[in-house]
Design a protein that fits this description.
The structure is a homodimer. Chain A is built from 9 helices and 10 strands. By secondary structure, the first copy, chain A, is an alpha+beta fold. In chain A, the strands form 2 sheets. The first copy, chain A, has a 7-stranded mixed beta sheet, with helices on both faces. In chain A, strand 1, helix 3 and strand 2 form a beta-alpha-beta unit. In chain A, about 45% of the residues are buried.
Chain lengths: ~300, ~300
């Protein structure tokens, strides 16, 4: 998206993509209660000439370093192989890994304390994050103005897709420091809101509130002719992270999120019952077998 | 190479490529004295159809699991993204990361104990390992029989290139358990024998023995018209790993390597002087500034 959206001499957006990549890594780490210590980069190119675009390389490095810093982690190093014939010449495969520490060990969160009656607090996303991009890119190819198509909120489609993924580390750190009784946390990534039932146990997750999705989701839904079920089943729809804890602590999460610069909503409850996610305001439900992720 | 060399219904070789990948990761980890605990996989494809070739996928999984087991590490999980337009459809980007533990902490090896008079013990490679493949592949395209070209030792060129990279973990573990005074260890990967001067300090590394390189190196040298300097400066030439320690302990490394099924040679000495690698039997020397790696 960045390569296609970039204008001659214009911003490369690779600083934002770097944050997306680091966010995908550290956001996955913190859900178990670990704080990231070291992030390593794996940047594979198909042609070493990729790195000779200095503006782009420099943005990538700056964005990666800034995201590591915001995560409280050191950038440990990494590997930048040139894989001729595997990676397309003008693209880059951005990945990485992180190591975190759970300390004290009581901070470990695996979901075993999840219980009927728990609140589900949703935290805002910054947009599409890094999931569902294959469809999103296809739609740009079909729109007359491509990534320059104006959305209802005035931003261009490309700009909206490139909004860097939120790093939820600051919020999670503050929840742990406030000693909230965190029962479970999950990123809403691939599989969209179906991810809300990612914990091992069988529960019914009933959502009685949905945030207003960003304009890019409306655009994607209209252009692709997708149903609400498709959209909530595959995109984050404005909510990128969920925290599960005793209902009487939900308001504190909303307050600490606000302090971390993030909107949050006490949006649902965990109930007894066979595994499913129910989104009441949309009249949707997803059964447990619709979530094909490893437990 | 595996894709090109595979015959219809024949072996996929992805078990061997899996070992190459795991070896690149854990061999890099053990040089500081860490034993790998967990290996994570990052397998990026350009088309999810890649995974539907069951023989290939199954070989990849089996080979990865076996290499983790040989390394004494658990396979922690991983990520298998589909990156449309970035990864070529019939290829896969195989990477990963590992976490190790240095215990007791006296096992930490950073090279600060490296001293004039130390022996440099070379450990055999299994062939090209995973470095210099871009040139090696180009030569296959130019040879009439491609990867099926017979080498002097009777193996085909493809078979030779696909020999799985040695895992040096068993050897390094036994060196540590024997409480040898390890001053430094290095993998001979990209930059070939120039890697022998990878330590921070300025020393002259004088090699008075070179092992006989495998037949694929002769083939590459002849077909590409490369000099010895090109070859030793870019390929491992039969030696994949080096151990630096007091000269009176060199024989023990050779013995422990043999017990681990690996040939080893007391092949050189660390001397005072400006940073360089001298390969006496070949009349070659590489100056410190020819090694462009991060210290």
């Amino acid at each position: 998206v960045a390569n296609a959206f970039r204008t001659k001499g214009g911003k490369s957006y690779y600083d934002q993509i770097a944050q997306d990549t680091v966010a995908m890594i550290v956001n996955d780490l913190i859900v178990v209660g670990a704080l990231p210590q070291v992030v390593n980069a794996y940047w594979a190119v198909g042609d070493s000439a990729w790195l000779s675009d200095e503006a782009r390389s420099s943005d990538l490095i700056k964005g990666w370093a800034a995201a590591c810093q915001e995560s409280g982690a050191a950038w440990g190093g990494g590997e930048t192989p040139t894989l001729v014939g595997t990676i397309a010449p003008d693209t880059i495969d951005l990945a990485g890994s992180a190591i975190g520490i759970i300390n004290p060990k009581e901070r470990l969160v695996l979901g075993d304390k999840l219980a009927a009656g728990d609140a589900i607090v949703l935290i805002e996303s910054s947009g599409i994050h890094a999931n569902g991009l294959t469809l999103a890119r296809k739609l740009a190819d079909q729109a007359p103005d491509g990534y320059h198509t104006k959305l209802a909120d005035g931003r261009s489609y490309g700009q909206a897709l490139l909004a860097p993924t939120h790093l939820y580390i600051k919020l999670v750190r503050s929840l742990m420091e406030a000693k909230l009784d965190l029962h479970y946390m999950v990123n809403i990534t691939g599989h969209g809101w179906r991810k809300l039932m990612r914990a091992n146990q069988d529960f019914k997750y009933v959502m009685n509130f949905v945030p207003k999705p960003q304009a890019e989701f409306d655009f994607i839904q209209k252009q692709s002719g997708s149903s609400d079920e498709d959209m909530y089943g595959n995109f984050n729809m404005g909510a990128g992270f969920a925290v599960y804890l005793p209902a009487n602590q939900a308001a504190q999460v909303v307050k600490l999120a606000k302090a971390a610069g993030l909107k949050a909503w006490d949006a649902g409850r965990v109930l007894s019952g066979p595994k499913q996610v129910v989104i009441e305001p949309k009249g949707l439900s997803f059964s447990g077998d619709s979530l094909g992720v490893r437990s």
